[in-house]
Each structure stands twice: as structure tokens, then as C-alpha cells.
Design a protein that fits this description.
The protein has about 800 residues and is α/β, with parallel strands linked by helices. About 50% of the residues lie in helices and about 15% in strands. The protein folds into 3 domains: about 250 residues, Rossmann fold (3-Layer(aba) Sandwich); about 200 residues, Rossmann fold (3-Layer(aba) Sandwich), CATH 3.40.50; about 280 residues, ABC transporter involved in vitamin B12 uptake, BtuC (Orthogonal Bundle).
């Protein structure tokens, strides 16, 4: 008897993959998770349900090593693990992966580069890793989502959100060591076809022994897929059991939502939930005549106040472009005539909706404040009362309106954005999939609020990925390939009719074309600075034909070389979404050390140069360790660099080492030496930028949180990035010394701001990890040519900086116009 019981216990242990007990996590006064026990067996799908703010996402972050609980125990593959040793990297080694509700990809990188970041151990070699990463990305996405039309070479930011979600899921599942995958609302952005593909794939992998935790508000998915279900409420597990022990209505009751119907879709409209049909004379309308843009074609339409109009169709058919065009008509204003104030609720709350450092209340009232007159006084008491009213009405789950919005769950953040639109007093409300990731009770509440708003004369334009929600609409416009292919009204609005109309024109190619077009637009980011550089060079040549000679080219480029190296150094700092306010002073110090110590005491000079580069790299370590803004640290160090330089050499002077001038003046074949120097500098920057670890650094510049979750060391990235920048600065200082054959601590101090301008002119952005080494080189040469050109016109050098600044503003304006066209 005892022997049999022992065997049973061993079998149970063998089946168990991960077990946690007594888990508790608090954030200030808020108890996010309270005394939770949770177990997942091998080859099991666990369904996890609960209202927004129930603690589901926090619990999953704990299981994946992202968040450390305040108390509790962890048993992984029957081995006790200390929480202090359990990180995302540790979880990854045990085969635990998570797909977050909010995408954790690097949008400045390509699809395949995002795969590399997650599976770097699979790729070896300097050159072949890109080909292998492309193959892995292509196969992984196709295995789960056949016929997805995702270009793995496309920059992630160019893909629709549904395709980004597919990439996120495929990237996690492609882990060869995968044993447990946590899927947090994985179908919230997926069209119906891709949702079915994912559910089928999970079923297949379950049979292979892979475990899954599936979080969804669509309860039919939970019941179809799961072996067991956990129900969470107020941070605790309220109920757990097998699928056979429950049903949708029972789960809703257990979640404390009250009795509802088909939660996986929407609450079916009853007699009190029929579409409103109110006529308002002289009400707020939108009239569209022959609307044509890059994404939209031949749209003619009239929408009146009191209507709820649904926008349907397969994802990527132009719905979001249509909504944004209505909200910001701009040059299409002749085609669009709107009467009334418009509010827009974005479908991408992380990127376009939230002000992450602000409180809930400030996020709610910003649209109302922005719509008022300049310096208009708004009574704080009435504003706070209105905030509190919507806070209570939408049942936002937090400790109060002063909580920071990023502390809320995704669904509660969505409630805040909806409250913002309703508070704004807008006559026309545009909704981009507002119920994505929102629990059932909130959905029902939102439907009722929209009905009431329409009954008061507001025009509601509502895009949804859940076709059943259109039962609340007066009319539904079905889009395909950027056109409205069908208009359904009243009794015609059925799921079958919507699906049939969606496929009346194939829009899959349109999605592919959209990605390709965006990828081509990115290429023009390099073309524009190249054209600018060539234009100024040609103008200089027209004014002085000697410019086109080898001597003329060499003379112009030699003058630009110091700025080019300072700019390349700045490029990698900006690529990390930092700014170095002391790079010019640092290069000035290198110049002084080269012209003094390196000549008088070469050994000490070499040590001084190595020490300078090491100290420069330690700035990155300091910025990370103390969480200080880069602009503060680098500005402080600018005084250190200059102070050391003046200590070594009080006034300009010194001389260049003989070996340095010999190397610099060595005759080059075919082209002037400056062409080789500039070309090699650009290639070196590009090689680092495109290298394996250079890709990691760009990832940190775009989404540091995602990189940490993938197991990459942030302190290493900061230190290495500043080391690379310091080395380019070192080369710049050596070349300044070789060109001038002397030293001056302030010789290139003005290049600090010019280097920032060069990076921006070259297609870089100060945030987001988007830079271009070649573009930065072109930008630096362009700014240098401006000074030469003004000399040809006999314009005082005092105006050079002003003209360079004007050129920068023009480039930024052109980029803004291009961005508007992309959107």
C-alpha cells in the first residue's frame, strides 16, 4: 500500500512542471497578487480568466521571471528555485517563455532581427547569422500562421498591429527549448482566421508535451483549448477546476461579473440594446466625396449625428487609415467635410494613447484641457468631479485617480482612454477597436455608454475586430483593399454578411504591398541626406570648378573629417536614445594628449589615451547604475574633459607625432586619401551598426524593457556602446592632430551640437534607436559644405551656424511631412 502511494506521488511529481505557492505582490497600497497557489503540468493548457485588474498579468510576470514577488515559493521541474536567482534569462533556460499583452518587440529592427535577439545562441559567425535568422523567422511564422504575407525583411514598425502580434507569438514559440509558453491575450489583435490557426497550433504542441497558460477574455477559446481553468479575482485564485466542471455562464459568475451570454464574442443585444435611430436636424455630420489617398480609394459617404457606424473588414484593409484620415483630414480636407469636434480613441494605447508618466486623472482630462482657449481658467473642482464621475462610471480598478496610468492593467488603461474621449465634449467620437483586451462587464458598460452618447446626438464611428459587436450599429461599412465594398444597415448586419463582404475583394496583397511600401520609405531616409550632400557639392563646384578636381575634393573632405568622426561617435550614443553633450570636448582632450604626451612621453601618452577611452565608456556604466539622464552626465563630463585638457596644455600649441603625420600624408592610389578615410569611417560605423551586438545595441535604444526580458544585460550594453563611441572619438582626435599638426582644447568643442544636427539630417531620430551611420556621414559633410559655400559668397562666418540651423529645421519639416504621408 505504501509502495503504491509512493509510486503515485512520483508520477505526480514527474507530471508537474512549475509550482508556486503563497505568492504575494504589492505595489504601494495595492495588493496585485495575494496568496496565490498555481501549478502547471507537462503537456497541459491552463486557462486563466478574470476581470481587468484581477492580477492575471502580474502573476504571469512572476512566473516568467520579470517580476519578483514579495513572498512565496517556486518549484521548477521539481527543483526549488530562489526568487533572487530567478530572472527572465533563468526562466528562458528552463524553457519558460511569455508573450505579453503589450507587444515587447523592437520596432526599429526588422522582423528577422527581432528573432535573432530572442535566439542569439542559435546564430554563430559574422555574416551568416542574418541568413539563418531570416530562415528561422520565415519558418516559425509560417508554421503557426500559413499565408501570413509577412515580409521578414520589413522593419517591424511598418507592419499592422495584427502582424506584429503574429511575429511576437512566433518568436516565442520558435524556442527549441520551449516547455511552457504563457500567452497573455494573444488573440486580442488577431483576425478570426489567424486566431483559429493559433488555437490549432497550441492543440498540436500540447500533444507534444509543451505546456501553455492561455489568458483571454474570450471564454469560448478558454473552454475549447484548456485542460484546467483558474479564475482570479482581486489578486487571488477564486476557483480552479477542469473544463468539464464549468461553462461560460458559470465562469462569468465566478469572476463576479454577473450572468452574461457569449463572452467570447459580445453580449447579444436584447430589446434594450438595439441600435439607436435618432434624427437630429442640423446635427453633426461627416460628408466624404471622392476620397483618395495612398491607402484609401474612391470613398463617398455621409454620416449623421445620432448614428453608430461600424467599420468592418479583414485586418489591414485600410480601416485604421480611414479613421486617422477622418480625425486628421489635412490635405484631404476638400474631400472631407466635418461639422463638429472630433475625439479619437486609438487602438495602440501604448504608443499613441497613454501619457505614461501621468496620473489617471491627467490622462483623462488632457483632451478637454487642450480644446480650451489659451490660458483659459478651468475650475479644478468641477474638473476633478468630472474625472471622478467617469472613473467611477467605467469602474477603473486602482487605488485612486492619482495613480500612475502605467500601473493599471491593459483593460483599465483602455477605460481611461475612452473616458478621455467622452470627457472632451466631442460631437464625433472615433473608436479604434476600443474593447480589445477588455473584460465582459466593461464591454457591456461601454455598449450602453455608446448608445446613450448616440441618443444625445453624438456620431459614433466604431472599428472593431469582433464582428458580433456590430449588432449595436445602425450601419456597417465593410472595407477591403482600402475601399468600402459593402454598406450594411439594420437587419442586414449579420456576421455572415460581414464575412462574405470582407472577402468580396482579396485584400491580402494590399497588406503585403503596405509592408513593402513602408520598407521603401525607410530606404529614402538614406537617399535624402545623400542628395542634399551632392546638391551642395555641385553648387560649390559651379561656383568654383576646382572643387571637382582631386585636390578640391581632398581639401573639402579633409575639412569635414573631424566632424565626421565626432558625428559617428554621436551616432551610437543617439542610437541608444541618449545624447552626448561633451563629445566635442572629449575629442579636444584627445587632440591635446596626442600633441603633447604622445610626442614627449609616448608610453604615458598611450596610457592616457587608453584611460580616456575607458573613462568615456564608464559614463555608460554610471548612467545605468545611477539611473541618471545621459544629457546630465555627459554635460558634466564635458567640463572634466576640458579641465584635463587645460591642465595638460594651457594654450594652443604642441605638435603632431611624426609617425602620425607620416601615416596621414602617405600617398593613396586612385583617389585622394580623404575619400578613403571617409569611406572607411562610414563602413566601420555601418559594420558595427549591422553586427550582431550592434543589433542588440539598437534594440536597447528602442525598447530596453523588451531587451531585459529577453535576457540581455543593460549595463553591458550601455558600457559597450559608450566604449564604441569613445573609440570613434579617439580616432577623431588622432585625425584632428594629424590634420592641424597641433592641438587646441576648444578646436572642436562646437562640433558637439553640429554632430547632433548631422545625425538628424542623416535620417536619425533622437529617440527610438533609429540612426544611419552612412546618413550621419552625409549629414556631416553637408554641414561642412555649407560653411564652404558661404565662403564662396563672401558671407561672414558668423552666419554659418544660423544657416546650418535653418537647414536642420528644413530637414525636420520635410521629415514631418513625410511622416504625415506615411500615416
Amino acid at each position: 500500500m505504501d509502495h503504491g502511494s509512493q509510486e503515485t506521488n512520483e508520477r505526480i511529481k514527474d507530471k508537474s512542471f512549475i509550482t508556486v505557492k503563497g505568492i504575494k505582490k504589492t505595489y504601494g497600497p495595492t495588493v496585485a497578487v495575494n496568496d496565490v497557489n498555481f501549478e502547471v503540468e507537462r503537456g497541459e493548457v491552463i486557462g486563466l480568466v478574470g476581470a481587468n485588474g484581477a492580477g492575471k498579468s502580474v502573476m504571469m510576470r512572476i512566473l516568467s521571471g520579470v517580476t519578483c514577488p514579495d513572498q512565496g515559493s517556486l518549484l521548477l521541474e521539481n527543483r526549488p528555485i530562489e526568487w533572487s536567482d530567478y530572472s527572465p534569462l533563468t526562466a528562458k533556460k528552463f524553457g519558460v517563455r511569455i508573450v505579453f499583452q503589450e507587444l515587447s518587440l523592437c520596432t526599429n529592427l526588422t522582423v528577422y532581427e527581432n528573432f535573432y535577439l530572442e535566439h542569439d545562441h542559435l546564430f554563430q559567425g559574422i555574416w551568416s547569422w542574418r541568413k539563418k535568422a531570416r530562415t528561422l523567422a520565415r519558418q516559425s511564422i509560417d508554421d503557426i500562421f500559413p499565408n501570413n504575407f509577412i515580409d521578414v525583411n520589413a522593419r517591424l514598425s511598418s507592419l499592422p498591429i495584427a502582424q506584429q502580434q503574429m511575429v511576437e507569438i512566433a518568436r516565442a514559440i520558435s524556442d527549441q527549448n520551449l516547455k511552457l509558453l504563457i500567452l497573455d491575450e494573444p488573440t486580442s489583435s488577431l483576425p478570426k482566421e489567424q486566431t483559429e490557426q493559433l488555437l490549432h497550433y497550441v492543440s498540436v504542441r500540447r500533444n507534444e508535451g509543451i505546456s501553455f497558460i492561455f489568458i483571454s477574455h474570450r471564454l469560448n477559446e478558454i473552454l475549447t483549448l484548456s485542460n484546467r481553468i483558474y479564475v482570479m479575482q482581486n489578486g487571488s485564485v477564486k476557483w480552479t477546476g477542469t473544463v468539464s466542471e464549468t461553462n461560460e455562464d458559470d465562469l462569468i459568475n465566478k469572476m463576479g461579473e454577473g450572468r452574461e451570454t457569449q463572452s467570447s464574442e459580445v453580449v447579444e443585444p436584447d430589446n434594450t440594446a438595439t441600435p439607436v435611430s435618432v434624427q437630429f436636424e442640423g446635427g453633426h455630420t461627416i460628408e466624404i466625396h471622392d476620397l483618395n489617398t495612398k491607402e484609401l480609394h474612391q470613398i463617398n459617404l455621409q454620416m449623421k449625428s445620432g448614428e453608430i457606424i461600424g467599420i468592418a473588414g479583414l485586418d489591414g484593409s485600410g480601416q485604421r487609415e480611414f479613421l486617422k484620415t477622418l480625425f486628421r483630414p489635412k490635405k484631404e480636407s476638400k474631400s472631407i467635410q466635418s461639422m463638429g469636434k472630433i475625439a479619437y480613441v486609438t487602438g495602440d494605447r501604448k504608443k499613441e494613447g497613454n501619457f505614461p508618466l501621468w496620473s489617471i486623472g491627467r490622462n483623462m482630462d488632457i483632451s478637454k484641457l487642450a480644446s480650451g482657449r489659451l490660458f483659459q481658467r478651468i475650475p479644478a473642482k468641477s474638473m476633478n468631479l468630472e474625472i471622478r464621475n467617469w472613473y467611477d462610471q467605467l469602474k477603473v480598478k486602482s487605488s485612486g485617480v492619482d495613480d500612475c496610468i502605467i500601473n493599471l492593467s491593459g483593460g483599465n488603461q483602455q477605460k481611461v482612454l475612452i473616458a478621455r474621449a467622452l470627457m472632451s465634449g466631442a460631437d464625433i467620437i472615433i473608436l479604434d477597436d476600443p474593447t480589445r483586451g477588455v473584460d465582459i462587464a466593461t464591454k457591456k458598460l461601454l455598449y450602453q455608454i455608446l448608445k446613450e452618447a448616440a441618443a444625445k446626438g453624438k456620431l459614433i464611428i466604431w472599428y472593431s475586430t469582433e464582428d458580433e459587436e456590430f449588432a449595436y450599429c445602425n450601419r456597417v461599412l465593410v472595407m477591403a483593399k482600402g475601399s468600402i465594398v459593402k454598406e450594411l444597415s439594420e437587419n442586414e448586419i449579420t456576421k455572415e454578411n460581414i464575412i462574405n463582404a470582407s472577402f468580396s475583394k482579396c485584400n491580402e496583397k494590399a497588406i503585403h504591398d503596405y509592408s513593402s511600401r513602408q520598407d521603401k520609405i525607410d530606404i529614402t531616409g538614406l537617399v535624402i541626406p545623400l542628395i542634399s550632400m551632392l546638391a551642395f557639392f555641385i553648387i560649390c563646384g559651379i561656383l568654383s570648378p576646382n572643387v571637382f578636381s582631386a585636390f578640391g575634393v581632398d581639401l573639402l573632405l579633409c575639412g569635414a573629417i573631424p566632424l565626421i568622426f565626432v558625428t559617428l561617435s554621436q551616432t551610437f550614443i543617439i542610437g541608444l536614445s541618449h545624447v552626448d553633450m561633451g563629445i566635442g570636448n572629449y575629442v579636444g582632450l584627445i587632440n591635446v594628449l596626442c600633441a603633447t604626451f604622445l610626442v614627449q612621453k609616448p608610453g604615458w601618452g598611450i596610457l592616457a589615451l587608453i584611460g580616456s577611452v575607458a573613462l568615456y565608456s564608464l559614463m555608460g556604466t554610471l548612467i545605468y547604475a545611477r539611473k541618471l539622464p545621459s544629457i546630465v552626465v555627459t554635460l558634466g563630463f564635458s567640463f572634466i574633459w576640458t579641465g584635463i585638457a587645460y591642465t595638460v596644455q594651457m594654450a594652443p600649441g604642441g605638435t603632431a607625432p611624426g609617425w602620425l603625420t607620416t601615416i596621414y600624408n602617405y600617398p593613396a592610389p586612385f583617389f585622394p586619401k580623404s575619400v578613403y578615410i571617409v569611406g572607411l569611417a562610414g563602413l566601420a560605423g555601418f559594420w558595427v551598426y549591422r553586427s550582431r551586438y550592434g543589433t542588440v545595441l539598437r534594440g536597447f535604444g528602442n525598447n530596453a524593457q523588451s531587451m531585459r526580458r529577453s535576457g540581455w544585460s543593460e549595463i553591458k550594453a550601455y558600457t559597450v556602446n559608450y566604449l564604441i563611441s569613445g573609440l570613434f572619438g579617439l580616432l577623431g582626435g588622432l585625425l584632428v592632430t594629424a590634420i592641424t599638426t597641433a592641438s587646441d582644447a576648444n578646436a572642436v568643442s562646437s562640433y558637439t551640437l553640429l554632430s547632433v544636427a548631422s545625425v538628424v539630417i542623416g535620417g536619425g531620430y533622437l529617440t527610438g534607436g533609429t540612426v544611419s551611420p552612412f546618413g550621419a556621414v552625409f549629414g556631416a559633410i553637408t554641414l561642412s559644405l555649407i560653411a564652404t559655400l558661404m565662403g564662396f559668397f563672401n558671407i561672414s562666418s558668423s552666419y554659418v551656424t544660423a544657416v546650418q540651423g535653418a537647414i536642420l529645421l528644413i530637414v525636420l519639416a520635410l521629415r514631418l511631412l513625410r511622416k504625415d504621408q506615411e500615416q
